[in-house]
Structure formats: C-alpha cells, structure tokens
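Practice problem: predict the structure.
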Amino acid sequence: MRPCAACGVRQTSVCGAIPETDLIRLAGIAIGGIARPGTLFIAETDPATAFFNITSGAARLYKLLPDRRRQITGFANGGSFLGLAVSDNYAFSAEAIDTVRYCRFPRARLRELIHDFPLMEERMLKAASTELVAVQEQMLLLGRKSARERVASFLLARSGAGCQSPGHFVLPMARGDIADYLGLTIETVVRILRRFRTERLIEIVNTSEVMLRDEVALRRLADGSHPARG
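Answer:
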C-alpha cells in the first residue's frame, strides 16, 4: 500500500479511482520499474500484456516506418497511462527521455480490479479518449498549420504538462525530437524559437526550460488568428 499512498501522480492518473482503503489491492498487482534515458520500455508490435503508469520522468512515443525511420507521435509525462491499445499488440514504442519511473499492471489482474471499481474503468476510457483527441490534433498540426503555428501549439501544449510555475515549464526532449514530432527540420525549430524569443513571446531559460512571456499572443498565433511572420 505504501508506494501507492505516497505516489505523487496517483490523484491525477487512473489510479486515483481506487479509494485509499483499497490501495493495498492496487499495490499488490503493481510492478515498479525504472527506464534509464534512451531505454525502451514498450516495444511496438510486442504483445500488449500490461498497462504502464508513468510516475515520474518523460518518454517519447513513436512508430517505425517500413524503412525503419522513426516518427515521434507524442510525449508522455508523470501521470500518463500507456497501453490502452485495442489490439493484442502495442501500437507504439515508448523510450525514456530522462529517467522514467513507472508502475506496470498485468492486464488480466487489472481487469479483475476494474470489475470491483467501475470508476477506474471510466478513467481509463477517458484516457483513451484523450489519446484519440491528441491524434486528431497532431493530424491538424501536420496537415494545416504553418511552421510557426506548429511550434506555438507545441509550446502551449507543453506549458500545461508539468509547469514549475505559471508559464514556466521544462522541455526534456531534444530539439530533434520536437522537430520530428512537428514534421519540421531541427534548423527550423531552432530558428522559430529564436524568433519567438526576439519577439518577446517566450524566454529560453536554458536548453531544457522555457517561460511564456506573452501567452495571449502565442495562443493567437497557434490558432491562426495572428499574421504569420517568417
């Protein structure tokens, strides 16, 4: 029970559906794990035998093209619940960006728990719906938005995924990962970030930290309601 009771992301993840009095049952099926930076902990096409709940750290999610090129499809942070594939195999790979700590739940044993706690099933369905929305948003991002609009949209999305303080957040992934996800070159991403800084839309604290200076203007740009420049 103790690891679950002390988990910093339990209330914001699907595990928050389990009452504290029953955490011993959740802890009884959870298998803790650590993935060091660059380590794969979910492999695309492997049998989907477990769910993964990230408790800390960040991971890149990607799919491999037939020629083995990699396409990053998203990023996962603490509280992300992975493995909600409808097929028998994982639909993506997950690789640690920094040190990732996670709980792995065997599917069969978690289903038994879900039977007794319907609220947990509701949260899992909500997580699956969120994944679908994210896929649709990325399709819009890649298909219709300009390079500046893509970077602005990405920064706004990240600002809500682990803010240290209002508008101040971490970008644990490399610029190359961002470029891959947005369908841009590294040079384009770096140039746009510099332009955003010059235009006082953001402040680049260091290579992994950003602060929003004009969120309203950035949001107008992401929505396509602000004239694109450069």
